[in-house]
Design a protein that fits this description.
Number of strands: 7
Number of helices: 2
Shape: globular
Radius of gyration: 13 Å
Mean pLDDT: 94
Amino acid sequence: MTTFTTEETSEPVPLELATTARARRRGLLGRPGIEGALLLTPANSVHTLGMRFAIDVAYLDRSSRVLAVRTMRPGRLGLPRPRARQVLEAEAGAMERWGVRRGARITVQHT
């Protein structure tokens, strides 16, 4: 099982990894929701075309520090973030609950 934490999370958050081009293209498309989050790597932009729900998107730099967090409604096209190397996606509202905000560092654990 893979999880992630921030400096502010008390419990690890379930994490799915999208490391292949196919998995990154699919992302959360066609899903009714997600338990935890999805990490797209490498990635520097996302879209919500065809999505069923709004998502929170955190753009991470090469050291897994959060550059920006945005909420995207379905049917939107996000602009690329030049310094972003990974994108963390979750249902809208989740990032705030987990303490994922600009400047936070994401730590991924594989168990």
